[in-house]
Amino acid sequence: MCNLIYKTNTNEFHLTNGNLSYILKVLDNGNLGHIYFGKPIKINDSYVNLYRKGRHLTVESEDGVPAGGIKPDFMCEYAQYGTGDYTEGAFQLKQPNGSIVTDFKYMSHEIVKGKPKLMSGKMPATYGNDCQTLVITLVDKLIDVRLVLYYTIFEKYNIITRSAKFINGNADDMKLTRALSASIDFDSADFELLQLDGSWLRERHINISKLRYGSQRVGSSRGASSAIHNPFIALQTPGTTEYSGEIYGFNLVYSGNFTADVEVTPHDLTRVLFGINPYGFEWNLRKGEEFQTPELVMAYSQNGVTEMSQHFHNLYLNNLIRGDWQYKVPPTLINNWEATYFDFTEEKILDIAKAAKEIDIELFVLDDGWFGKRDKDDSSLGDWFPDTAKLPDGIIGLSKKINSIGLKFGLWFEPEMVCPVSKLHEEHPDWVISIPGRHRTLQRTQSVLDFSKKEVVDNIYEQMKKVIDGSAIEYIKWDMNRNITEPMSAFLDADSQGELMHRYILGVYDLYDRLTNEFPNILFESCASGGGRYDPGMLYYAPQTWASDDSDAMERLKIQYGTSLAYPIKSIGAHVSASPNHQVLRNTSINTRANVAYFGTFGYELDATKLSDEDKAMIKKQIKYFKDHAELIHFGDFYRLQSPFIGDGNDVAWMSVSKDKSKAFLGAYQVLGRPNPVYKRLKLKGLDKDAQYKISGVKGVFYGSDLMDVGFYNKVDFGGNNWDIYAPVREENAFEGILGAGDFSSKVFVIEKIK
Ligand code: GLA
């Protein structure tokens, strides 16, 4: 392993892997100054040439005494408030005398191979040996508190991760009222802010806006990372495209409340502040205690958005996701939710499973409604024992029956919730997050369990273990269908209520940790009313996330495109559902539905007993086809070609290319049909320019350079009288789809190198 971190005689630290550089410095007064983050810089004796000149966020003390504060020549590194920097800092530490001003000065540093665990493994984080970590310890002697900053640089990815830890050595207790993971200053304000916003059924849509003076922020205060804003933002130079321009991506490895704040000063400096949302947050840093922030992943690319995404994808596939399923293609599943909702019997379930087996599905997932007395969404969450009226032999019996049909068995849980009508609630009404004397806001007739209390987590763990033990569960869908209101815990004293939201998510991680350790063979899929908690924190435990409750193929183009900005294709839960679609009532062909779901985990969410013979035959082909190309799609490099967020968004295309460039899988989609359309070629990416390729369903042989520089025409020709003209094409290409032939058309292509 080569050296990635260099220290100069002038106390500058340079983190570089040849693809990016990050430079910071211990200033003469002991504070940490930021110098640079971006394109790789040559290793040098000093980086004095890179120091900025002129004013920005800070003032220098006039008496010349090197007190606290950053000199104008530097930007801030983990900005602190009150000693010359007038903008908001990365943290706020309330001291016994009421002051929030700190003056942390360099104490020591070490450069370690690999990456120390975050909170001894109690919080999710990237891991690995193919990296080095700079650990800088600072101290504020007046208050005897140490601040430890972690910077990890990976050898092969354009990635730096950061985290901060506070250690209270003081005889007195203190309070952290803000503890962000990082602040990063940029010597420019010439950026656009890219964010992923949405709501239930339309998660992670891309929005881009020009930065303006002052602060602009996204975040969540709902107790989950949320569908409203994903804990991902990027700063890009104006005009950045998928393949050109500079972009910095930031993604928080955390599933709870977050803030991502970008502040631009009138001197055109930009500061990114990212971490746990300080709103409502207060953490007691008692004597001798420590607090560590979640990890912030920062990616950089000078070649546009796709390259940034590929670095996130590779990092998450190799250095975040863990366990037995990390490098395996998941079994093709069928989920009964959209087939039956709550209305099922064991007989119905077994009928669906038998029909599913006939079309080569491998795993049956029983969704909501199997436990307590849950015939609709008004009871029983918290009672994780089977409803024997529906399932006479329980989950153990059902799982055996499913196995004997020849399918694996998977089960839905919503571990963090409780319904007022449930045994659990009767026994433990104080386990609900709520405020005595105040109305408890119910959502979907349910409340949130107080996972800040270990006893609550223990109870749910024991209940789940009991269901799993003895039954043949090989997959768990872990759902979370409401956010937190009236945040208050019956088990925290008045002074500690500000800790609840963070402690809650630590409780969720604890349960995940216990279950994934106890049952390492089980494949977990996280879910929160679809994609309401799609973040790297979840991916650390569950390698895939149900991307959205919207299973419509056209809606999914936007959702999956946006999701792919940070998250690997292998992690995107995607199913073929019935037509007309249950969310938007749109009719799409079974090819188009599959052609979109291929770029994800790929499965089915429909009633297999109601399929036509034609659809059954098609599904068998689809499953085989997906299996043949799944490794390529899940582990290849993903390239976005045409965006649903640009122009009228009518044409969308993306592709996965194998690492050795010998094979590629391309998906192309047209939302609405166009009469007499303009002739336009689609330019591909990632191929070997000197190699020759053939493309499934297309006559001829193409050089990689031709496909990438000139492109190819991938649609059926418009013929005026379409129905007749398309007749032969409808037959020939029926399986892989027909692109250009009307609304919601699509086609996938396999591209193979011939020499
Ligand atoms: C959520 C999930 C769905 C389904 C239902 C069951 O909405 O996102 O996929 O599991 O809950 O209640």
Describe this structure as you would to a colleague:
There is one protein chain. By secondary structure, the chain is an alpha+beta fold. 20% of the residues lie in helices and 28% in strands. The strands form six sheets. Strands 7, 8, 9, 10, 12, 13, 15, 16, 20 and 21 form a ten-stranded antiparallel sheet that branches. Strand 17 and strand 18 form a beta hairpin. Helix 3 packs parallel to helix 4, helix 6 runs parallel beside helix 7 and helix 9 (553-563) packs parallel to helix 10 (590-597). It is globular. The structure holds alpha-D-galactopyranose. The site of alpha-D-galactopyranose has 11 residues, from loops.
How does the overall form come out from the CA principal axes? globular
User: Count of helical segments?
Assistant: 13
Low-confidence stretches: none
Please compute the radius of gyration using only Cα atoms. Answer: 27 Å
Which band does the percent of strand residues land in?
Answer: 25-35%
Query: Which structural class fits the helix and strand makeup?
Result: alpha+beta
Give the tally of β-strands.
Answer: 38
Q: Main sheet?
A: 10 strands, antiparallel
Separation of termini?
34 Å
